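Example S7 (C-alpha coordinates).
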Protein backbone atom coordinates (compact mmCIF):
# COMPACT_ATOMS: atom_id res chain seq x y z
CA UNK A 1 0.00 0.00 0.00
CA UNK A 2 2.76 2.39 1.04
CA UNK A 3 4.76 1.47 -2.07
CA UNK A 4 1.74 2.04 -4.35
CA UNK A 5 1.10 5.53 -3.00
CA UNK A 6 4.80 6.36 -3.41
CA UNK A 7 4.56 5.29 -7.06
CA UNK A 8 1.44 7.42 -7.55
CA UNK A 9 3.23 10.37 -5.97
CA UNK A 10 6.18 9.93 -8.31
CA UNK A 11 3.87 9.72 -11.35
CA UNK A 12 2.13 12.90 -10.27
CA UNK A 13 5.47 14.67 -9.86
CA UNK A 14 6.62 13.45 -13.28
CA UNK A 15 3.37 14.71 -14.87
CA UNK A 16 3.81 18.07 -13.19
CA UNK A 17 7.46 18.31 -14.29
CA UNK A 18 6.45 17.48 -17.89
CA UNK A 19 3.68 20.08 -17.81
CA UNK A 20 6.16 22.70 -16.55
CA UNK A 21 8.70 21.70 -19.20
CA UNK A 22 6.10 22.05 -21.97
CA UNK A 23 5.03 25.46 -20.68
CA UNK A 24 8.68 26.58 -20.60
CA UNK A 25 9.21 25.25 -24.16
CA UNK A 26 6.12 27.11 -25.37
CA UNK A 27 7.36 30.33 -23.73
CA UNK A 28 10.73 30.03 -25.47
CA UNK A 29 9.03 29.60 -28.85
CA UNK A 30 6.72 32.53 -28.19
CA UNK A 31 9.64 34.73 -27.17
CA UNK A 32 11.68 33.77 -30.25
CA UNK A 33 8.70 34.46 -32.50
CA UNK A 34 8.33 37.96 -31.06
CA UNK A 35 11.80 39.14 -32.16
CA UNK A 36 11.28 41.61 -35.02
CA UNK A 37 14.76 41.30 -36.55
CA UNK A 38 16.73 38.15 -35.76
CA UNK A 39 19.70 39.49 -37.75
CA UNK A 40 20.06 42.49 -35.43
CA UNK A 41 22.26 40.42 -33.10
CA UNK A 42 24.17 38.93 -36.04
CA UNK A 43 25.54 42.00 -37.78
CA UNK A 44 28.70 40.16 -38.90
CA UNK A 45 26.51 37.73 -40.89
CA UNK A 46 24.62 40.33 -42.88
CA UNK A 47 26.91 39.91 -45.92
CA UNK A 48 28.47 36.98 -47.72
CA UNK A 49 31.33 38.02 -50.02
CA UNK A 50 33.26 34.88 -50.87
CA UNK A 51 34.02 32.53 -53.74
CA UNK A 52 32.78 35.00 -56.37
CA UNK A 53 29.47 35.57 -54.63
CA UNK A 54 28.32 38.83 -53.07
CA UNK A 55 24.97 38.98 -51.29
CA UNK A 56 23.20 40.77 -48.45
CA UNK A 57 21.23 38.70 -45.93
CA UNK A 58 18.14 39.74 -43.99
CA UNK A 59 15.41 38.25 -41.80
CA UNK A 60 11.82 38.80 -42.89
CA UNK A 61 8.54 37.58 -41.44
CA UNK A 62 6.11 36.35 -44.07
CA UNK A 63 3.83 39.35 -43.50
CA UNK A 64 6.65 41.73 -44.48
CA UNK A 65 7.14 40.16 -47.93
CA UNK A 66 5.38 41.45 -51.05
CA UNK A 67 3.51 39.15 -53.43
CA UNK A 68 6.29 39.71 -55.98
CA UNK A 69 8.93 38.59 -53.48
CA UNK A 70 6.92 35.49 -52.55
CA UNK A 71 6.45 34.72 -56.26
CA UNK A 72 10.21 35.05 -56.80
CA UNK A 73 10.91 32.58 -53.99
CA UNK A 74 8.26 30.15 -55.23
CA UNK A 75 9.92 30.25 -58.66
CA UNK A 76 13.36 29.45 -57.17
CA UNK A 77 11.83 26.57 -55.22
CA UNK A 78 9.91 25.24 -58.24
CA UNK A 79 13.00 25.39 -60.49
CA UNK A 80 15.04 23.43 -57.94
CA UNK A 81 12.47 20.98 -56.60
CA UNK A 82 9.67 20.24 -59.08
CA UNK A 83 11.39 17.24 -60.68
CA UNK A 84 12.37 15.83 -57.27
CA UNK A 85 8.81 16.18 -55.92
CA UNK A 86 7.31 14.70 -59.09
CA UNK A 87 9.53 11.65 -58.84
CA UNK A 88 7.90 10.61 -55.53
CA UNK A 89 4.43 10.52 -54.01
CA UNK A 90 4.59 14.18 -52.97
CA UNK A 91 4.15 15.58 -56.48
CA UNK A 92 4.70 19.28 -57.18
CA UNK A 93 1.74 21.63 -56.61
CA UNK A 94 2.24 25.41 -56.88
CA UNK A 95 -0.83 26.25 -54.81
CA UNK A 96 0.11 23.91 -51.96
CA UNK A 97 3.70 25.15 -51.84
CA UNK A 98 2.58 28.79 -51.85
CA UNK A 99 0.11 27.96 -49.07
CA UNK A 100 2.90 26.44 -46.97
CA UNK A 101 5.21 29.38 -47.71
CA UNK A 102 2.61 31.93 -46.61
CA UNK A 103 1.46 30.35 -43.35
CA UNK A 104 1.50 32.97 -40.61
CA UNK A 105 4.44 31.49 -38.66
CA UNK A 106 6.75 31.44 -41.70
CA UNK A 107 10.02 33.32 -41.35
CA UNK A 108 12.62 33.88 -44.03
CA UNK A 109 16.32 34.39 -44.33
CA UNK A 110 16.61 36.18 -47.66
CA UNK A 111 19.78 36.66 -49.74
CA UNK A 112 19.80 39.48 -52.31
CA UNK A 113 22.30 40.41 -54.99
CA UNK A 114 23.56 43.96 -55.73
CA UNK A 115 20.27 44.76 -57.52
CA UNK A 116 18.21 43.61 -54.50
CA UNK A 117 17.03 40.59 -56.46
CA UNK A 118 16.32 37.53 -54.29
CA UNK A 119 18.88 34.88 -55.22
CA UNK A 120 18.47 32.48 -52.28
CA UNK A 121 16.22 31.98 -49.29
CA UNK A 122 15.58 29.82 -46.29
CA UNK A 123 12.04 29.34 -44.94
CA UNK A 124 12.08 28.49 -41.24
CA UNK A 125 9.85 28.55 -38.18
CA UNK A 126 10.22 28.59 -34.43
CA UNK A 127 7.82 25.88 -33.31
CA UNK A 128 7.08 23.00 -30.96
CA UNK A 129 7.75 19.76 -32.81
CA UNK A 130 7.01 16.54 -30.89
CA UNK A 131 7.10 18.73 -27.77
CA UNK A 132 10.61 19.99 -28.56
CA UNK A 133 11.26 23.68 -29.08
CA UNK A 134 12.91 23.82 -32.49
CA UNK A 135 13.73 25.85 -35.52
CA UNK A 136 12.21 23.83 -38.35
CA UNK A 137 13.93 24.48 -41.67
CA UNK A 138 11.25 24.14 -44.37
CA UNK A 139 13.42 25.12 -47.31
CA UNK A 140 16.86 26.25 -48.22
CA UNK A 141 16.92 27.19 -51.89
CA UNK A 142 19.69 28.84 -53.89
CA UNK A 143 19.44 29.82 -57.55
CA UNK A 144 21.83 27.85 -59.77
CA UNK A 145 24.62 30.47 -60.11
CA UNK A 146 24.87 30.70 -56.32
CA UNK A 147 25.05 26.99 -55.63
CA UNK A 148 28.29 25.35 -54.46
CA UNK A 149 29.64 28.72 -53.36
CA UNK A 150 29.55 28.10 -49.62
CA UNK A 151 26.47 30.33 -49.34
CA UNK A 152 24.22 27.40 -48.36
CA UNK A 153 26.50 26.44 -45.48
CA UNK A 154 26.73 30.09 -44.41
CA UNK A 155 22.92 30.38 -44.34
CA UNK A 156 22.60 27.18 -42.27
CA UNK A 157 25.14 28.63 -39.79
CA UNK A 158 22.96 31.72 -39.44
CA UNK A 159 19.88 29.56 -38.87
CA UNK A 160 21.72 27.60 -36.17
CA UNK A 161 22.91 30.79 -34.47
CA UNK A 162 19.36 32.16 -34.47
CA UNK A 163 18.00 28.88 -33.11
CA UNK A 164 20.57 28.23 -30.43
CA UNK A 165 20.77 31.85 -29.22
CA UNK A 166 17.02 31.59 -28.64
CA UNK A 167 17.56 28.33 -26.72
CA UNK A 168 15.84 26.02 -29.20
CA UNK A 169 16.75 22.36 -28.62
CA UNK A 170 17.24 21.48 -32.28
CA UNK A 171 17.35 22.70 -35.83
CA UNK A 172 15.23 20.06 -37.53
CA UNK A 173 14.36 19.50 -41.20
CA UNK A 174 12.85 17.05 -43.65
CA UNK A 175 14.90 15.84 -46.60
CA UNK A 176 13.91 13.75 -49.60
CA UNK A 177 15.98 10.57 -49.57
CA UNK A 178 16.58 10.84 -53.33
CA UNK A 179 17.85 14.45 -53.14
CA UNK A 180 21.54 13.47 -53.17
CA UNK A 181 22.82 17.05 -53.25
CA UNK A 182 20.77 17.99 -50.17
CA UNK A 183 21.77 14.83 -48.29
CA UNK A 184 25.47 15.48 -48.97
CA UNK A 185 25.02 19.10 -48.05
CA UNK A 186 23.24 18.53 -44.73
CA UNK A 187 25.69 15.77 -43.80
CA UNK A 188 28.57 18.17 -44.45
CA UNK A 189 26.82 20.71 -42.20
CA UNK A 190 26.73 18.12 -39.36
CA UNK A 191 23.08 17.00 -39.54
CA UNK A 192 22.18 13.46 -38.51
CA UNK A 193 19.03 11.36 -38.57
CA UNK A 194 16.64 12.72 -35.94
CA UNK A 195 15.27 10.74 -33.00
CA UNK A 196 11.75 11.17 -34.43
CA UNK A 197 12.61 8.90 -37.37
CA UNK A 198 14.80 6.28 -35.78
CA UNK A 199 12.16 3.60 -36.31
CA UNK A 200 13.58 2.13 -39.50
CA UNK A 201 10.62 -0.15 -40.17
CA UNK A 202 8.32 2.84 -40.59
CA UNK A 203 10.69 5.28 -42.21
CA UNK A 204 12.14 2.92 -44.77
CA UNK A 205 8.77 3.04 -46.57
CA UNK A 206 8.83 6.87 -46.85
CA UNK A 207 10.52 8.98 -49.51
CA UNK A 208 11.89 11.35 -46.87
CA UNK A 209 13.56 11.39 -43.51
CA UNK A 210 14.05 13.85 -40.68
CA UNK A 211 17.50 15.24 -39.88
CA UNK A 212 18.55 17.47 -37.03
CA UNK A 213 21.36 19.20 -35.21
CA UNK A 214 21.30 19.47 -31.42
CA UNK A 215 21.88 22.68 -29.53
CA UNK A 216 25.31 22.14 -27.94
CA UNK A 217 24.39 24.65 -25.22
CA UNK A 218 21.40 22.64 -23.98
CA UNK A 219 22.25 19.74 -21.69
CA UNK A 220 18.60 18.70 -21.48
CA UNK A 221 18.55 18.02 -25.21
CA UNK A 222 17.03 14.55 -25.01
CA UNK A 223 13.99 15.51 -22.98
CA UNK A 224 11.33 15.70 -25.73
CA UNK A 225 8.94 12.89 -26.59
CA UNK A 226 9.87 10.37 -29.25
CA UNK A 227 6.74 9.43 -31.22
CA UNK A 228 5.62 5.82 -31.03
CA UNK A 229 3.48 6.02 -34.15
CA UNK A 230 4.06 6.85 -37.78
CA UNK A 231 5.16 10.29 -38.92
CA UNK A 232 2.65 13.09 -39.00
CA UNK A 233 1.19 14.70 -42.10
CA UNK A 234 2.93 17.93 -41.17
CA UNK A 235 6.31 16.18 -41.21
CA UNK A 236 5.61 14.97 -44.72
CA UNK A 237 4.68 18.43 -45.97
CA UNK A 238 7.27 20.49 -44.17
CA UNK A 239 9.91 19.43 -46.50
CA UNK A 240 13.02 20.28 -48.29
C1 LIG B 1 21.57 22.27 -51.27
C2 LIG B 1 22.05 23.72 -51.30
C3 LIG B 1 21.21 24.56 -50.36
C4 LIG B 1 23.51 23.73 -50.81
O1 LIG B 1 24.00 25.05 -50.80
P1 LIG B 1 25.39 25.34 -51.55
O2 LIG B 1 25.76 26.75 -51.34
O3 LIG B 1 25.21 24.88 -52.96
O4 LIG B 1 26.37 24.34 -50.82
P2 LIG B 1 27.80 24.71 -50.18
O5 LIG B 1 28.66 25.32 -51.23
O6 LIG B 1 27.59 25.47 -48.93
O7 LIG B 1 28.34 23.25 -49.88
C5 LIG B 1 28.69 22.77 -48.61
C6 LIG B 1 29.03 21.31 -48.75
O8 LIG B 1 27.84 20.57 -49.10
C7 LIG B 1 28.19 19.51 -50.00
N1 LIG B 1 27.58 19.78 -51.33
C8 LIG B 1 26.98 20.91 -51.73
N2 LIG B 1 26.55 20.80 -52.99
C9 LIG B 1 26.92 19.57 -53.42
C10 LIG B 1 26.76 18.88 -54.65
N3 LIG B 1 26.16 19.44 -55.71
N4 LIG B 1 27.25 17.63 -54.75
C11 LIG B 1 27.86 17.04 -53.69
N5 LIG B 1 28.05 17.66 -52.49
C12 LIG B 1 27.57 18.91 -52.36
C13 LIG B 1 29.71 19.53 -50.11
O9 LIG B 1 30.23 18.71 -49.09
C14 LIG B 1 30.02 20.99 -49.84
O10 LIG B 1 31.34 21.21 -49.38
P3 LIG B 1 32.53 21.47 -50.44
O11 LIG B 1 32.05 22.49 -51.43
O12 LIG B 1 33.64 21.96 -49.57
O13 LIG B 1 32.77 20.14 -51.08
C15 LIG B 1 21.97 24.32 -52.74
O14 LIG B 1 22.82 23.58 -53.58
C16 LIG B 1 20.57 24.30 -53.33
O15 LIG B 1 19.84 25.27 -53.18
N6 LIG B 1 20.22 23.20 -54.01
C17 LIG B 1 18.90 23.08 -54.67
C18 LIG B 1 17.73 23.03 -53.70
C19 LIG B 1 17.89 21.95 -52.65
O16 LIG B 1 18.05 20.77 -52.93
N7 LIG B 1 17.78 22.38 -51.40
C20 LIG B 1 17.95 21.50 -50.26
C21 LIG B 1 16.68 20.90 -49.87
S1 LIG B 1 15.51 22.11 -49.48
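Recovered sequence:
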Amino acid sequence: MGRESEKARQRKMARRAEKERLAASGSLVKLANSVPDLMAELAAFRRYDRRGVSVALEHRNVGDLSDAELDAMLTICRDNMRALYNSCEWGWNDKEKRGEMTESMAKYLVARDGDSKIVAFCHFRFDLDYDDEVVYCYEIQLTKPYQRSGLGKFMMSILELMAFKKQMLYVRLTVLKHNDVANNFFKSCGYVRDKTCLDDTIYQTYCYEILSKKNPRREDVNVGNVPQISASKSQQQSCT
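Notes on this example. The chain has one domain: 36-237.
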